[in-house]
What we know:
The protein is of the alpha/beta class. It contains four helices and four strands; from the N terminus they run αβαβαβαβ. Helices cover 30% and strands 12% of the residues.
Amino acid sequence: MREGRTGDLRALAAAQRAHLLEWGVVPGPAGSTAVDLGCGPGHTSLALAGLGFDPVFAVDLSEPLLGEPAAQATGTPEVRQVRADVRTALPELVRPGSVGAVVCLGDTLTHLPARGPWPRCAPMSPPRRRPRERPCSPTAI
């Protein structure tokens, strides 16, 4: 990985960490495990680790994209790359009630088919947001 890209990813992680803090996403009584669905290059996974989540499952189906958080996570053992489909990964990785945060940020959802097997993911997810709620919630699943 080029040095410029490394610095860019670290800067993105710092900015994302500030957003997550603003939204109240911090480890708490629900647990310190976090899942980053559709992690892409990994800046959100690194941000979650920087907030104290451990482990952080960085989930993506793209092998090349998973290589980026792997390169950045050197010295950050709490970030664990998982090659999996975001629609089915949660029940394979965690038990209900054992996770402090599940995030799916950026353009991840736009890459999925309009209709698909969400039922395996939906029961593990936090309740749907109501209008005017914060975009993220540290609700345990």
